């Protein structure tokens, strides 16, 4: 499972898929629902990177189904945020908001889960920008950006900068857009993303 995670992090999709499939073979009959849900969640991520969205969705649905049955809902908040991001990608902001609301309920009971909290803030900010609520969206974006940077979640930080650049570009604020795109590019090059 860890070799698959490392391969996924390095965007070595074929290797990641190989290791996740091997992990699945080992854990498919396991009573460890957490590990099995992580395998499904990560296989979903691999298929997303390969632009095979039907398989991505199928594995994410499996992960969510397992995580809804688990007593600890922390992992569920992560999967709901991924699902919300997928809904946003296809233009379904209403569906994304419903998933984010569900994730928010889980996160209220888990205040120490800062990463998922800021993933939800990032996605909610994108929705608020679509609705024209720029002030509140910027507050959420700033919160997520600061957290990702301090926690050294640099891929998420770069993704947020790119999203913010797109928002500013759509608003015609090209200098701000370019600043965000440039910072994302500079950090991506530096870190080899």
Explain what the structure shows:
- This protein is mostly helical and 193 residues long.
- Helix content is 82%, strand content 0%.
- It has ten helices and no strands.
- It has helices spanning 2-9, 13-27, 33-49, 53-69, 74-89, 93-108, 114-131, 134-150, 154-170, 174-191.
- The protein is globular, with a radius of gyration of 17 Å.
- It starts with a helix and ends with a helix.
List the main descriptive attributes of the protein structure presented here.
193 residues; mainly alpha; 82% helix; 0% strand
What's a concise summary of this model?
This protein is mainly α and 193 residues long. The chain is built from ten helices and no strands.
Q: What is the C-alpha radius of gyration, as a whole number of Å?
A: 17 Å
What is the tally of beta strands? 0
Proportion of residues in β-strands: under 5%
| Unreliable parts | none
Overall residue-averaged pLDDT value: 87
What layout of secondary structure does this protein have?
Blueprint lengths: L1 H8 L3 H15 L5 H17 L3 H17 L4 H16 L3 H16 L5 H18 L2 H17 L3 H17 L3 H18 L2
Helix pairs in contact: 1-2, 2-3, 3-4, 4-5, 5-6, 5-7, 6-7, 7-8, 7-9, 8-9, 9-10
């Amino acid at each position: 499972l860890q070799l698959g995670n490392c391969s996924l992090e390095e965007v070595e999709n074929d290797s990641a898929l190989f290791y996740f499939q091997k992990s699945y073979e080992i854990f498919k009959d396991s009573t460890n629902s957490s590990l099995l849900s992580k395998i499904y969640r990560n296989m979903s991520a691999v298929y997303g990177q390969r632009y095979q969205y039907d398989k991505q969705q199928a594995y994410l649905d499996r992960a969510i189904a397992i995580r809804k049955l688990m007593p600890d809902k922390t992992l569920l908040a992560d999967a709901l945020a991924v699902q919300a991001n997928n809904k946003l990608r296809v233009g379904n902001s209403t569906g994304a908001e419903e998933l984010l609301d569900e994730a928010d309920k889980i996160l209220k009971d888990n205040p120490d889960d800062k990463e998922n909290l800021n993933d939800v803030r990032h996605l909610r900010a994108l929705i608020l920008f679509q609705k024209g609520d720029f002030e509140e969206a910027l507050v959420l974006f700033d919160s997520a950006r600061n957290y990702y940077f301090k926690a050294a979640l640099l891929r998420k930080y770069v993704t947020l900068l790119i999203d913010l650049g797109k928002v500013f570009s759509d608003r015609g604020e090209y200098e701000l857009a370019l600043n965000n795109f440039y910072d994302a590019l500079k950090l991506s090059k530096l870190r080899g993303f």
